[in-house]
Amino acid sequence: MGRHKIEVKLLKTTNKNLAASRNVGLPHCTGDIVAMTDDDAEVSPDWVLQMKRVHAEHPEAGSVGGAVTGIDSGHNLT
């Protein structure tokens, strides 16, 4: 797979609430697609490119989600 330029901007906030923190970041987004994941999620190396492809194939979609691949012994989604 070739290299692709993807711009990432990290913002600091004192807010500990995930949804509120995302709302702080959204006004700073400048692209056509906003990709979000949680700090404890593992994504494939081509995750952003997969999201871009699905959005291109389905421009009517308002959002795209990923797969949950399992649940560990502590009943956590993995």
From TrEMBL:
SUPFAM superfamilies reported for this sequence: Nucleotide-diphospho-sugar transferases
Pfam family, one: Glycos_transf_2
InterPro entries with a match to the protein in the record: Glyco_trans_2-like, Glycosyltransf_2, Nucleotide-diphossugar_trans
Chain ranges of the Glycosyltransferase 2-like domain: 8-71
Region (Disordered): 58-78
PANTHER family for the chain: GLYCOSYLTRANSFERASE (PTHR43685), GLYCOSYLTRANSFERASE 2-LIKE DOMAIN-CONTAINING PROTEIN (PTHR43685:SF2)
Stated name of the protein: Glycosyltransferase 2-like domain-containing protein
